[in-house]
What does this fold into?
Amino acid sequence: MLQEKLLEPVDLSHHLSQIARARAPSPLKDLQRYYGKPGIISLAGGLPHPDYFPFASVGGDALVPNSFPLSSPKESSSLSWLWNLISGRKEHTIPFQIPKYAAKLGELNLSETLQYNMASGAPLLQSFIKDFTEKVYRPAHKNYATLVHTGNTDGWGKVVTTLCNPGEGVLASEYTYPSAMSMMLPHGIKAVAVPLDGQGMRSDALRTLLSEWDESLRGMPRPHVLYTVPVGQNPTGTTTQSARKQEIYDICVEFDVIIVEDDPYYFLQHKPYSLPADRTTCSNGASDDEEYISQLVPSYLRFDHQGRVIRLDSFSKTIAPGCRMGWFTCNPIFAERLERQSETTTQGPCGFSQAFVVKLMLEWQYKGYLRWLKALCMQYQRRRDFFIDCLHEHFTLELSMNATGIWEGVPVYVASLKSGKGLKSEIRGPPMFSFTPPSAGMFIWLNLIFEHHPSFSTIGHKALEMRLWIALAEAGVLFGPGYMFAADSAADDEGETHDTGHFRISFSNAEYEDMKKAIVIFSFVLREFYNNVVY
Amino acid sequence: MLQEKLLEPVDLSHHLSQIARARAPSPLKDLQRYYGKPGIISLAGGLPHPDYFPFASVGGDALVPNSFPLSSPKESSSLSWLWNLISGRKEHTIPFQIPKYAAKLGELNLSETLQYNMASGAPLLQSFIKDFTEKVYRPAHKNYATLVHTGNTDGWGKVVTTLCNPGEGVLASEYTYPSAMSMMLPHGIKAVAVPLDGQGMRSDALRTLLSEWDESLRGMPRPHVLYTVPVGQNPTGTTTQSARKQEIYDICVEFDVIIVEDDPYYFLQHKPYSLPADRTTCSNGASDDEEYISQLVPSYLRFDHQGRVIRLDSFSKTIAPGCRMGWFTCNPIFAERLERQSETTTQGPCGFSQAFVVKLMLEWQYKGYLRWLKALCMQYQRRRDFFIDCLHEHFTLELSMNATGIWEGVPVYVASLKSGKGLKSEIRGPPMFSFTPPSAGMFIWLNLIFEHHPSFSTIGHKALEMRLWIALAEAGVLFGPGYMFAADSAADDEGETHDTGHFRISFSNAEYEDMKKAIVIFSFVLREFYNNVVY
It folds into this structure.
């Protein structure tokens, strides 16, 4: 399955945009050999003196890596949140400190991390990133580079500027992360929607799209960049499995397309959902780290024998969004151009962030970070389970294994309102929405089935989605409105999604009791929304 | 002098670039009123749960605001660095802590600052910035906006994208901050050099340039954006005084030009330099804060009755570069477009940085921060004095008040090598470089006078500058090579700077003894460089 031979990347520099080509080499390139010379006195930079940084030290209390359990007990989703609430779980922490000046050579210190830095970040951070990428993602081409960035949103923006010219299109899932698309549009770069199924982007649809591309009909050249969130896809929660990734990779080789893998939810890969009655204790406790890593869906890097994948990693979901930090993994030609761009824009990530993340990794070590990630995944899985359990409690859910369209190949629950008085719960109303339990990430994507709504034939699903969204908001619950996630405005009006609205619901952040309350409100609002439907 | 009437800004939206116009309004704009509703349950965002942020708290030890003295004793520059070295000055600090969860409403906490934030930053930061801008810069138009950014380099990049189209030019001082220019070039936006004098950008030259602009000859429309570092200009160290600013502002009104004021050195405004023999104790101790502020050269904002100034402020020089944080002050139309750009690129600044800067300002308060800034200025002034004293010690400096060209209107020292054996120090060699003591900032700009060099007539000043730079680097000293600071490559080959090379020397960061050593090496290398010149 995976390319085990580690090959040199092929030359893909023809993908560089006009802007990327026009970027000058680093102005210090020729002089750089003097800059690191031991003992040299530099009066060249515009650096303030670290004596005047107003922090003698910074520090804090870090949670221990095993702060959260590796297993999710059967009853966890309905009861243990209550238990946590009552018991006031005590946190175990490690105190840490970062001094302004290092006591010994190589020690992390503020005089360096809070100083102007290379756009490539602090050396300790660079080596953590490189080591982690090598061990966890095991890229198939050996000559890859890693380069720190200031978060995946900015990372993606830099990739677009580096690869795309105005008038071009970028392949993206028909529903995708809105900011990624909003970034492109003002630069005259449009999304080209690729249909989704239960595994995310469809390889067959991608092939058809590329092989039948008609430049004059489409008004743009065949796209040479593909944007994908392959794990816990935002907003649909689906995950592209290994075989599908290989297919997509091969298609991209055939049609010379660069794959941009935006993968913030990689470590939140959940076990399949079971209804509470069928649930058993679930564990993410593979004692062997190698085994744990091998159970994760491989990154596109693992298939990338040519160097045509740009992977975006982020600390936003594994540490905190406020880190505003992550990294690119890609071929060295792209990395060099991305680094030049960082030099004249964001420069390196915030020094506090670099210091705190490096310090945490030094305290935890690689093994401790993996332990943290395993448990983090279980926490989000528990939240997913709890949320779907709530849906199960307040709606009649019918399981279907034969869905077509967006949920093809995965189990789908079709939800209808329970009968009004709770007496004859076997009498179902019409289906109101359907969903598949997400296989990773933070989101549940509801297909809203409006065809039984009295106003459906007159105003259609788009207007109904918005009306239902407003009715919910007025009642005190906010879901993500589906229209915001359409990769291009056309995608919503054609193809297989034509008769549904959508909501993206995040189970990652709200308190358990609030999620429960939200579902109760949702069921009331839906009932009201369909108030003249007879059961 | 200053516009005291606070007027509404005029409509300057015709300055927006095609990209800025094409940016969609915030996709949440219509729905925003629901987002802040008290008690609402939001399952809309893609937010991780703060329980999983692996820091129970962060904190540190902040220096007290009066850590550094307000006065610089007469002998400070030559002796007190030694005193500091021996006495091991003890730092007074304030311990502080930022908990994950607030104990009471409105308290700074990590669960919010490390979460995804608005691109406009944390509310506590927003109000600090707005308040500081109002009190210190007192903008002349009342309807201005402040907006946080991720450092002036990125801030400037966002301004360029917001105001300029490919093929346009930006007015900039003939020597200027290189990264600001490197950012523009790949976007097809070129610098248009405006000559400098001892007050920075020349208003007469600006008027001539604009009034005589010939679009067909220049190959671009008349520039509508002006970039300036008006205080402690990078690289020349000059400061644009009040009357000059008024002239430039008026010209920009007349020719409809937007002024971008990149002002990181604003609080490092030095008193005039005196030779050690003439120096008296110098103090920055205006007890009244109003008086202190009124002694600072006013920002362009102070003249800006139309809203055509975009000011860039940075914490890099006053707190630390690693903050990667600063702010725009400008009219609300520009601010809104800049905010949209941040939303789809950098988002808000790093949460650690926001937390630490806010906490420091809460601890110090406005008054404490001003105390810090006053003393910081004195520290850099001491460094400037020390550095020039070293030059005085190892070169013969002749003061001239009648310089023309780049140093017109300010005192200029012309340096020559002292006689070889130190016996007849009154016998001077030919002039080798000249400089004016900087009035602010971190840099001394040397004009290298190569006309007496034996190879001058054959290879010219550019090649000599590079040869001297390399000779110095080989001897263990790095200065900033002058060619890097030329706004456009043409500027170096024409006009008044045609027969000098340049070095930018930073006195802000090196240890005192290293600066001393660097000057000794510089004098040796210069002597060697001119080795066949007969005195």
Observations:
- Residues 117-379 of chain A form a domain with the Aspartate Aminotransferase; domain 2 fold (CATH 3.40.640.10).
- The radius of gyration of chain A is 25 Å.
